[in-house]
Amino acid sequence: MSRTALIAIGGNSLIRAGERGTIEEQLANAHATAKTLAAMVKSGWRIVITHGNGPQVGAALMRSERAAGEVYTHPLDVCVATTQSEIGYLLQRAMEFELRQIGLTTPVITVLTQVRVDPDDPAFANPTKPIGPFYTKKEADEKKRRLGWNIVEDSARGYRRVVPSPEPKEVFEQHIIGHLLDEGMIVIACGGGGIPVIEHEDHRVEGSEAVIDKDRASALLAAKLGVDLFAISTDARQVYLDFKKPTQRGLDRVTVDELQRYYDEGQFPPGSMGPKVESAIRFLRDGGKEVIITSFEFLTAAIEGSDGTHIVNA
Description:
By secondary structure, the chain is of the alpha/beta class. The protein has a single domain (3-116, 171-312), classed as 3-Layer(aba) Sandwich (Carbamate kinase), CATH 3.40.1160.10. The chain has helices at residues 23-42, 54-66, 76-101, 137-147, 174-182, 214-225, 256-264, 274-285, 299-303, and strands at residues 3-9, 45-51, 108-110, 114-116, 129-135, 150-153, 159-163, 170-171, 186-188, 195-199, 205-207, 229-234, 239-241, 249-251, 253-255, 290-295, 309-312. Helix 1 (23-42) packs across helix 3 (76-101) and helix 6 (214-225) runs parallel beside helix 8 (274-285).
């Protein structure tokens, strides 16, 4: 029987450092990503692909804001939906092409994905996730006054809007994604952590002005699908202890209990490796079998067991 994997692609897989993020650049990067994933399919894996959308959703918000005097604006949940379709389109095109280059005709489909969040989540009272462009203090004060945005100073580079990042509770399209996976299709889903929605008692669904952490949503979906492998692509080759210190060392293979201890010791900062390690722990605690964390350049070697960080239950 073929093995199943959920691959969570980092934002740097489509827009590399120093690039403007043009569609041509993103499509070229999508092809590079698709080559690796197509090779996985060739070797017998059935895969679900999730992805980030940080730069793209920021661009979507900027377009909406700057065109506000000419056309209707898009709220944040619609911007997430828009970028899910945009990125899914590029990845789907690239996957279909790269599969055919190696003699495969495996169907690829993008599923617009909604993720339920709790309206009482504490994150709504404490917005922390920066999105969109940088502003001067004058611009930021105007946005705060006119639009009611929450604004923070970001790393001395200017001021940015911050929005809530609530916990993902349920992936509405989970059963559809699982059915498509069982039918042998490659599924692109849960882009940008999913479209954050709130479900009311009368089953009415309402979009939420929030963003969901992509790795947390991916961990939830991976656990619910019961995949054999959850792979998190990041910009680091491995998970490191004492990162950027003289005593830095990479973790080749580690149990979830060991990783939990390192996490509790504060080894993984909240703004970088922390959410990925936390997501790996969640997946394994929810019955998952194995997690790989590595950079996309080393994903093939990591899946073969010779690179990256492998996290297991025991």
